[in-house]
Design brief:
The protein is α+β, with helices and mostly antiparallel strands. It contains ten helices and seven strands. A hairpin with a 2-residue loop joins strand 4 and strand 5. This is Sensor histidine kinase.
């Protein structure tokens, strides 16, 4: 999936904020001061340490986690994390030691460069510490009990490193689980569609078969209408979403085919109102409710009436279908309606309301679904 510009812009902003974070607490007291990499040890150390930690975050996320951790090599992954941590601690000492830091171009007293310092308990140590300008004091000289101990930023480096490693692992695992869930839902939807498509075909062929048995002159028209229905199913049924006007046109053709087949044996009260422009919907998500009414509400030996109302208001479509419950001449498991209800729960979990009123005489459904 292609990433848009906003994705990269967001990451650039986050990286800038991460690199800028240490300078909110610089010795200058201003968060607007640019880092002084040549003379300010705090700026120099934290800029390069944070920059390396930032590179490690992306290296860990895009390389180590997918190629090692997700390949069931957790022990190897932990060992690599430990090695990287030791590397960051080692590189911290390089940046923290002025006489060995290739980025520090200042002149230092000969005794500091050679390590010829008096012991901390000697009076000369305090005199040397007080006499040196602030910029020439080695980092940690005034903050450590013993000169030459571990740099003061060690604990901070470890903390930021662990936060980066854990957060990148957490994000990667979360995205992986989401992808697994999405793939599972797509598989379920594909299975449901595979059941729905032949379901429509068989029921519609049964409708035309009944015309052919009676040698009805409308049989040829019914075949043409069926071809339109099948063209829609073949070209659009596998799409995630389609233009709403195509789905409405499919419903119109289906109702017309049923009227052709049933003739005067049924009253179909069908109305549609609203604007479909700019609206989209999942294909074949409405037709099952309408087909169910024709399947269970029609019998040539009884008075039958089906009411279908489709209305679009702003971003929502309302479908109302009702039919008399009679002794239907058709019988099957109702797999189309069951699958549609499952698809609604998967695709429109928070964007639809379905109400079913099933009484002894009537069967009614009222569906409100977001299409905008």
């Amino acid at each position: 999936m292609k990433k848009n510009i906003s994705f990269y812009a967001m990451h650039c902003c986050l990286c800038f904020m991460f690199l800028f974070l240490p300078y909110a607490f610089t010795s200058t007291g201003s968060i607007f001061t640019l880092p002084d990499l040549a003379d300010n040890p705090h700026d120099r150390i934290y800029f390069f340490i944070y920059f390396l930690l930032l590179l490690f975050f992306y290296f860990n996320y895009y390389i180590l986690i997918p190629k090692i951790y997700f390949k069931e090599k957790q022990l190897q992954y932990i060992a690599i994390l430990v090695l990287f941590l030791l590397f960051f601690l080692w590189i911290s000492t390089i940046f923290d030691t002025p006489d060995r830091n290739f980025l520090d171009f200042r002149q230092h007293p000969h005794q500091i460069l050679n390590g010829n310092l008096p012991p901390p308990e000697h009076e000369g140590f305090k005199h040397l510490n007080d006499s040196l300008p602030h910029k020439m004091k080695p980092p940690g000289l005034s903050s450590l009990t013993h000169f030459g101990g571990p740099p003061t930023q060690f604990s901070h480096t470890i903390l930021v490193y662990l936060i980066g490693a854990i957060s990148s692992l957490f994000i990667a695992i979360k995205i992986r689980l989401q992808k697994v869930e999405d793939d599972k839902m797509k598989s379920e939807l594909s299975f449901l569609k595979a059941q729905i498509n032949p379901h429509f075909l068989f029921n519609t062929l049964n409708s035309i078969y009944s015309l052919a048995i009676r040698k009805d002159d409308k049989t040829a028209d019914a075949v043409v209408q069926l071809s339109e229905l099948m063209r829609y199913i073949i070209t659009n049924a596998n799409e995630d979403v389609i233009a709403l006007d195509k789905e409405i046109n499919y419903i119109n053709n289906y109702i017309l085919l049923q009227k052709t087949r049933l003739g005067n044996t049924i009253i179909v009260d069908y109305t549609f109102e609203g604007d479909t422009f700019g609206k989209a919907i999942t294909p074949l998500i409405l037709i099952s409710f309408i087909e169910n009414a024709f399947k269970h509400g029609v019998n040539p030996n009884e008075d039958s009436k089906i009411c279908i109302r489709i209305r679009i208001v702003e971003d929502y479509l309302t479908l109302f279908v009702s039919n008399n419950k009679i002794q239907s001449i058709q019988s099957d498991s109702g797999i189309g309606l069951q699958n549609t209800i499952e698809r609604l729960s998967l695709l429109y979990s928070n964007n639809h309301v379905l109400t079913i009123d099933d009484t002894q005489e009537m069967y009614k459904i009222n569906l409100k679904i977001k299409v905008g």
